[in-house]
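Q: Could you fold this chain for me?
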Amino acid sequence: MYLHLGGDVLIKKDKVIAIIDLETTAKSHINDKLITNLDHEKLNYVAEAGKEKTLIITNNGYYLSPISSTTLYKRSSFNMGGLV
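A: Sure. Below is the predicted structure, expressed as structure tokens.
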């Protein structure tokens, strides 16, 4: 199954490692450091500049999405037998 991140971007659900809310991470020094140290060559912008809400970490890279982390989490969970 696939997860729609916004725009024309779909990724395989089994490749998702983490779905991170950017507003929440900005409040944590450790999480902010994680985002700062990401390999920017593997960073894919799904959102327009300034409209990023969520960071998705996958086996293949990182994605900045305009869709909220809650919505992405729900989308990723629905086809897994309703397990949350």
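A (continued): The beta strands are 2-6, 9-12, 16-21, 43-45, 54-58, 62-65.
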